[in-house]
């Protein structure tokens, strides 16, 4: 088994299923979904094999596969997995069968629907595994098409607007990243697009800044970072349930992943220069998303804005530039995927029954449907980072790391835990407590299939909450190497920002609250780096 | 210094109860999970599963206490690691228990009172439709509280801290069909989270300074910390404590928490959970002892809370709300104690209060049971005849909380006042402490007189209840708690040589006298006189029923009845502005940011009208998208991304 090209298989299986389903007759809905389910289970099985084959404690890429693709331009097909991508691959594969099951009763244009799901899965898995920048870019953009279709064809009333907005935002971001990739290619002597080849290039401070910003356009929009986030509430709200789930659980993670995979190691000086600004954006995301979520009337929009808030934590962890924050950031991506994915699934089950997303339409759901109410409560508690459930195991290290990097940012972001309690419990109280009224009257509880979709996620929430060690064991070595690399470059450059961003934790017990570094630092940066 | 601060912690010997102490928490947690999943199928057996697991925890706690007591005094700080929990980057936190005299004392209280209240609930909740859920939550609470008490790291302590908050939320809102209950539950959780932010930031600061959150590493290192760090940590942890233990400024959730079933009020919102803040400060005594000025702040906040809550309690007419404000007030005493460095006195009062306040709440529950769930004490009266056991035990509780000589509350309150009297700068706090002693005796006597003495006013109600004494499952816990409330003083007859003081010595820093404001004999005499005056005045004034408030004092009384309108103040100062901020931001999001986005979209779409509008099927749109994408790649290379956006508008028309 060790010789099997597991990573290729992981991408090939869902891609093949997509092709197979596309070739099936349109009306064979039963076989279509069965094939999709089997395909997604096989994909999950391969992912499990990858996790089993992954060697813990080793920071670099593993299970690598390489083949020439377009040798004239140095474009290769190279895949590999490290601690960061392993978790995200696992998350993606874990959600695929659940998403198929959640869409089990999809009748309207079912064939296209399942083709889109499978294609989406293949592209997302590929994005996390690709170690050639052109391959990465192609898959990054390839995800757009099935997602655009999911929103645009099977979405709600405003689906066209939401789909196009999603498409444009992502495409524009991606294009700017492509420009930066091509610039890197020329800077490296036009030899190729291999991930390692383009890493550690001799770039000036100004070059780094511009390239960082170009990659930021792609990843910042994906996260999404304020003020580039407004596509998300529309996309989430209008997408069909499984579209929202895929968006929340996996697609948004590509932003955080991109920062850690590319921005930090490729542009360490720019990272250090801009880190205080990124932390500021992270804090804004956390607080702004939570505040706006508080006054939403549509439960899906509320969850969408909670995503903006929770992904602010991912940005904080990545740019705290210490191991605790970065490791927490990766785990937070998994945890957010689980909790928000489950929230969208549950809201989807409700919507299937009532076709109403307004919070005010419900009262007393807990009494009407206790199983649904109980699962929703556990999920909400996971989302508001209750210790003992998964959310806390990522959020706390992030806050700790952020505080170490920039105390003010850590303090402000910690206020987010109050706001999360407010908006989630407010919505819960309105919809689930009180006398059974409105659309809750006559509501039927979850079917075994629906419980079967959500239960595995809830179990994982508990397991990760109590025993997150296996995740961190795999992430820690990779982020340790990454952070060391960035900090080493910083030490060479002796940047002014360095002192409080990477200062030794134990050495200085005083609270140093410095304002974010201003433009002067950028200038210093240029002078230092030749 | 304490055993912990000296780094004297030893690993638990294999096979010793300390090595199994984690089961104290895990068994009730597992039982809660079972009850939540299959409780309905268990039917009448469900409560017994819960009671058995509580009994297991109590047995293990007693065994652990006996085992620990048999060890050398210097070896009573025992640590046992069960598993790694959170190894995130530089952070390393284990699932580990710290078994020391303080933890054992707390776990005895939690499991002992916990078991009694499990048994009591058997009778009290008999007719509820959600019995399995109730007992599941009780078990969940018991397990969570033991995580808090036994946690070896500040972070595992925090896990318990948050989980008991969750239980509080679930149990306050147990009867969630009523909006008021659900709202009270949410309020409790949110306000507690405000305090939690303080706790979390305190941990960040400590971790930054020490590089660990483990108590066995933090406390020994506390001595070497810089002054600023100590002050920050001391204040931030205390902020956390004010949330959980309902002190100014975060006390306002506790009175509303009475919406939960009465056994919950007794267990969580009187005897155990709300004392977690006191426990935290006592646990961190090696840190607090270095910052006596912050200690005085703690004591002052405690004193102010004690006074405010006692004043409000005098004006309340709900049988449970009087007790709720009384709890807030008594917690204030505990903070006075730990604030001035009298940690064992604070824990002593925590224990005795656990006995007599649990007793009073359970008695109140028994009364409400008899009164068909009515709670207005103005409508009661004369119930001593119908409810002799409830009334008699409530009388014991009333005497104990009032500080009647020789009761448990007398000794513990006396120790606190004596410690304050021996603290430099303690004059005002001492005066407040004495005033609150008078008020406590008064409002509790009023409470007792209105409920149990005088004319039977409920007989004039429409549909009058026919009170009867509660079943044995309810009266037995009352009697046991009454015994503890009477004899609890034996735990610590002398602040220095008492049993409890000696027991806690390895865990908390000893009190150090810094002044002598008043002689202890005189102080004791004053306190006894105040207690007797308060009790006599309360009984004499209210024996005949509620008093008509004179015209002149109506506004004052109304103000106290409305709890000084602090809720309204917070609403006007924080909640409403916060809401408008959120509304403003949501508007900005929809009109400001998205307005710009849509405007840009419309603008470019208008520019692109020259091009044909391609309105085709989706499949062709993809092909077009890919084609245009390719074109755009080239365009982007030239850096003309605006032009690229124009072309894209052809996709489907920007509506």
Throw out a few tags for this protein.
heterodimer; A: 530 residues; mainly alpha; two-stranded antiparallel sheet; two-stranded antiparallel ribbon; 23 helices; 4% strand; B: 655 residues; 3 strands; 68% helix; globular
Question: What report would you give on this structure?
Answer:
The complex is a heterodimer of chains A (530) and B (655). Chain A contains 23 helices and four strands. In chain A, strands 1-2 form a two-stranded antiparallel ribbon. Chain A has a domain of 227 residues. Chain A is 72% helix and 4% strand. The C terminus of chain A is likely disordered. Chain B has 26 helices and three strands. A three-stranded mixed beta sheet of chain B has the order 1-2-3. The C terminus of chain B is likely disordered. At the A-B interface, helix 6, helix 7, helix 12, helix 14 and helix 17 of A face strand 2, helix 6, helix 7, helix 9 and helix 24 of B.
